[in-house]
Amino acid sequence: MQELQLLNEKLNQLLKKHAALQAENKRLQATVSEHKGVMDKLNKKLSGLEEGLIATHISTGMNGEQKLGMRKQLDTVINEIDKILNTLND
Q: pTM of whole model > 0.70?
């Protein structure tokens, strides 16, 4: 009889932990969703800024080497953003 009571107590503890973990999971999923939204907005803003920057540099007459350097920098920034998005998706 005492064993059943002990088993019942352990079961209740596990159920409480399960409920707490489910609540935490929901909260974390909401946070991830919020961060994805922010990242999407930032990506759109970054794209607009990149286009403006490229247009400005082209109009000011950058040479080929400068254009290549700028392109590498932009690619690095975009790759970092992609890594962050992939991390959020996991």
A: no
